[in-house]
Amino acid sequence: MEITMASFPKEHFSKFDNAAITESDKAHYMHAYHCFDEHRADGSLNVAAGEGAYIYDAEGNKYLDAVGGMWCTNIGLGRDEMADTIAEQVRNCAYSNPFADMANVTAIELSKKLAELAPGDLNHVFLTTGGSTAVDTAYRMIQYYQNSRGKHQKKHIISRVNAYHGSTYVSMSIGGKKSDHPEEFDYISDTIHHISSPGYYRAPEGMTEADFLESLVKEFEDKILELGADNVAAFFAEPIMGSGGVIVPPEGYHYRMWQICQKYDLLYVSDEVVTSFGRLGKFFASKDRFNIQPDIITTAKGLTSGYMPLGACILSDKIWDVIAEEGKGRCFVHGFTYSGHPVACAAALKNIEIIERENILSHVEEVGTYFMEQLKTLSDLPIVGEVRGSHFMACVEFVASQETKALFPEELNIGGIVHEHAQKRGLIVRPTVHLNIMSPSLILTHDQVDEIVSTLRLSIADTVEDLEKAGHM
Question: How far apart are CA 103 and CA 118, in angstroms?
Fold first, then answer.
């Protein structure tokens, strides 16, 4: 792959006063997932530049970003042709009204391309501002569809424990992570329900994977029957759970769940905000990896590789034919000021062009397989319980005992300790209590994979030493 990017000499960072930036950050900038006490004490890693798979802080320190921004820097940072495309679109048409009888040609072109890439009859595209608003749109689309066909009572949603579907009121309610539901927030609880996570590592002791799968399918069907099939509208699922711990389901899980949806007239919503645009080696994973044809796919993140904020809710002919039925005079009263933003759409089109031109999907098949193979070599370390994932979507789960799979006390934040050691060595991994999660840029090389794994090994070894000294081992 030929990649043209900017280069950052050390003097590039002399203009930054990191101490002053830190004070301004603490005083004024409220972060996503802002942990008040920790931030007040420790501040943040202040990122000032990015290039390929690397980021640089305001003091010029270089880090290999194994998190890929937030699952999204798929083609790498600092691409000159992306910058040129964005600048050209700004000069040509920076914005246009996306409502009612107004459209812009870039949004139309992108919608056509997404319909071509999406599986089966997913031919209709509603462009949003990101993943959360794509899921929010899917939720409203489901209500609209059910009401349009006279199924006014069909409103309940089934999701899963440890699922993540976004940060709006609706999408966070659909999500099932305990840590994302603190008591200070309110959530929809009467019509949104959560069934078990499909993570086999935490299945009951002695249960085979086949029996575990049967138990998951039965639980889903039982929940539908408990609520009444005429009351349940849809099932939301990530093909592989992302921030809930990179949970790869048992073989055949999604197809079996899809069959249950067909049986009871539920819509299947595949949340591909993370898994689409190459992370699993395909533009979309639902059909090509998991053999299901969803009624709706939500996508974002890798859609623009993080260069611009953009998401999409892609829906089937089946839904469209009902909501857009001729002669009904319906209007889908939903939209955002920045739906189909022409600059974001231009970035998405260029991003897709780069993925296709540089054969990045094939690269992911090769190097992503190597990435998982090398990560699994960490399993010999005493606190590594499971290394799981697929291609460029990976997780290391830490345990106090490999035999019993018992966890360390949550307040120790093992993932955070490993993360801190790794960051000092120039590696960024995402800490989530007992986990380190990774989703690096898809342009990663074999050497960079080796750098991640060797640095992580040293960082985990340092963490073991810390635990032994503190008497926690």
Answer: 22
Say how far apart CA 373 and CA 301 lie, in whole Å: 25
Please state, in angstroms and rounded to a whole number, the distance separating the CA atoms of residues 393 and 453. 14
Spatial distance between the Cα atoms of 300 and 348, rounded to a whole number of angstroms:
10
Ramachandran bin of 22, using left for φ above 0, alpha for ψ from -120 to 50, beta for the remaining angles: alpha
The C-alpha torsion from 133 through 72 and 120 to 192, rounded to 10°, is -40
The CA–CA distances, whole Å, from 262 to 148, 236, 357 equal 19, 14, 37
- Signed CA dihedral, 427, 432, 163, 370: sign only: positive
- Strand, coil or helix: what is 377? helix
Q: What CA–CA distance (Å, rounded) separates 349 from 400?
A: 47
Which residue from 220, 243, 269, 245 is spatially nearest to 164, judged by alpha carbons?
243
Name the β-bridge partners of 126: 313
Closest by alpha carbon to 236, among 169, 173, 183? 173
**Residues 88-118: tens digit of each pLDDT:** 999 999 999 999 999 999 999 999 999 999 9
**Per-residue confidence (pLDDT) for residue 7, from 0 to 100:** 74
281: phi > 0 → left, psi -120 to 50 → alpha, else beta; which?
Answer: left
Give the containing element (helix H, strand E) for 29: none
CA distance 350 to 249: 33
Which of 368, 397, 369, 370 minimizes the C-alpha distance to 385? 397
Tell me how far apart the alpha carbons of residues 199 and 36 are, in angstroms, rounded to a whole number: 31
From residue 459, alpha-carbon distances to 280, 378, 427 in Å are 27, 11, 10
Our CA angle for 180, 186, 187, nearest 5°, is 70
What's the pLDDT score for residue 1? 54
Q: Report which secondary-structure segment, H or E, holds 322.
A: helix 317-323
Q: Which residue has the tokens 């006279």?
A: 150
Neighbours of 252 (CB within 10 A): 14
Which residues in the chain land under pLDDT 70? 1-6
Q: Smallest Cα–Cα separation from 138: which of 300, 17, 3, 1?
A: 300
* Alpha-carbon span 258 to 236, nearest angstrom: 11
- Specify which residues 417 forms β-bridges with: none
What's the CA gap between 357 and 363, in Å, rounded? 12
Q: At 103, give phi and psi (nearest 5°).
A: -155, 165
Sign of CA dihedral 32, 36, 38, 43: positive
Inter-CA distances, 156 with 191, 193, 236, 363, 376, Å: 5, 8, 11, 41, 40
pLDDT at 378: 98
Contact 268, 235 (CB under 8 A): yes
